[in-house]
Sequence to fold (433 residues):
Amino acid sequence: MRELATLDRVAPATRRTISAVGAERPTARFVVKALSTQQARTAIRSCWNQLLSSNDRPGALYQSDNYYDYRCETGDIDGDVLAVSGTAQGSIVGVVPLKATGIGLQFIARSAVFLRLAPQGLFLLGSEPMLVEDTDAFDGLFLHLLQHYPRAQAVSMMSVVVDSFTWRYVTTSKLITENYYLYMPEGPRNCHSITVPISLDAYQHGLSKKRRYNLHRQERLLQEHLAEEISLIAVDRVSRLPELYAAIDELRATDPAILSREQYELTCKHGILLCYVLRTPSRIIGLAIGSKSRRTFLVHKIFHDDSLNKFSPGTALWQYILRDLIERAEFTRVDMGFGDPAYRQHTTNVIEQRARILLFRRTLANRLRIAAHRGYYAGTADLKRRLRDNPLGALLRRHVLEPGPIQQRLVSALRLVRSISPPRPHTNDTVFR
Fold:
């Protein structure tokens, strides 16, 4: 979706706000330009890669030229690449890839999505813009989004680090306050990352004696139970993809992180893919879906054979992976994303607060969308809290808060209606989107 609207085509209320902001900034220090042709993108590749070389954020993968080429080859071409340059020297100080898609607000009862609001919007790939940390530069970027993408009702940043420059900008900027509603649907959440030890000895020394004993014991018990040699296969090239496909099939792995075979071949081609399969000659023990983001290994999803749960196959898989990462000496960090992994008390774990930030244009429709979404979850949480200590609470929760036959039929009907409607684009800014 490429909008070339001028200020005259923007809605009057927005135009007045933008004009007011512009009046306070008579001399723009930064210029934002959409790189709409392959030639224009090729011309700035060296600057693009130079900016990327100093980008240590986990989302750097999604801001790379490799990832952009991958998107083009898969046909995912909805969204511009913006170049931000300083007006004084004319040097490029930022490259911001966009993805045009629906911005999802889901209403979930138990595990069923019974309503999904998806106004048209823009993802800032990589969440935090790859842009010089300057308020005027960020003003220039968001002013450009307001002026040139009037149909985009929201801007999504999927994982912004609390108290980062981007966080401080969107929470304090006058331009943002006057033009957007700032909404964090889940609020700040824990994200776990793991510092990769410099050597196996350093890793072992970082563990307590009891922890070392328990890890060795778990691996030994798994080995004895299977009575076969256990091996770890790193899938990072096309020749090893059959191992990945076999693991997905045997573990019956289903998740948005699972891609098509064509996509996996392309991720190998562009040096993005890194998955791990733990197996014996006769069976699959576990599978980790991941990708490379410069010096960070991104873990998107971990699967294991549930029949081996008593032998901690997930822990065994992780120990094998960590040893391989240490030996590779290619990564300094493993990013686990949102949530609390089973090994969260590990001495190398780092906990970081991040949040999904949605910026909705200031319209009545968007205000109602936010109010409905916030009100639904606040009301549900309050009702559950009130029923928790009530003797009839379990009965009421089962019949009121959890979907029964009637609710399930309603959800099925809604899904049927959507299945014959034009498909909505994906909204997850996760693996290879």
